[in-house]
Amino acid sequence: MTETGQTAPDFTLPRDGGDQVTLSALRPAPVVLFFYPRDDTSGCTKESLAFTALQDEFQAAGAIVMGISKDTVAKHDKFRDKHDLGVPLLSDADSDICEQYDVWKEKSMYGKTFWGIERSTFLIDGNGQIARVWRKVKVPGHAEEVLDAVKSL
């Protein structure tokens, strides 16, 4: 399990707009990775909007915020445009990175079992170490809590 104090698993993933992002290339900036289940669902939209609303404050603190789901880049583009999102959305279509960060979990809803992303956030410091982990995230107030953690680095 990916935990506080460990080196964050590095990756290169495609993002909305067609570019690619390599985690290690973002150093020495702190990075916030929020993993979410699916574009354009209620909780995921609220979470993405909350991080977008605080984007200027994250930037002022020197941090880069990015969302990750299994959705395609094309779906991310539609989601970003529909809700005017300001945070990069990365596509982990094969769930390789989700598995490395241990957010790809067996879930249950309405008596059915399936695999999906457990809403989780990772704060990675400027040295590439995981400074803080939030698992089974509840959206209300979460982006503000993450911002406070970034400011305390």
TrEMBL record:
Its EC number is 1.11.1.24. Keywords: Antioxidant, Disulfide bond, Oxidoreductase, Peroxidase, Redox-active center. This is thioredoxin-dependent peroxiredoxin. The keyword Oxidoreductase applies. Residues 2-153 form the Thioredoxin domain. It comes from Roseovarius gahaiensis. One of its GO terms (cellular component) is cytoplasm. It catalyses: a hydroperoxide + [thioredoxin]-dithiol = an alcohol + [thioredoxin]-disulfide + H2O. InterPro entries: AhpC/TSA, Peroxiredoxin_AhpC-typ, Peroxiredoxin_BCP/PrxQ, Thioredoxin-like_sf, Thioredoxin_domain. Thiol-specific peroxidase that catalyzes the reduction of hydrogen peroxide and organic hydroperoxides to water and alcohols, respectively. Plays a role in cell protection against oxidative stress by detoxifying peroxides and as sensor of hydrogen peroxide-mediated signaling events. One of its GO terms (molecular function) is thioredoxin peroxidase activity. PANTHER family: AHPC_TSA FAMILY PROTEIN, THIOREDOXIN-DEPENDENT PEROXIDE REDUCTASE.
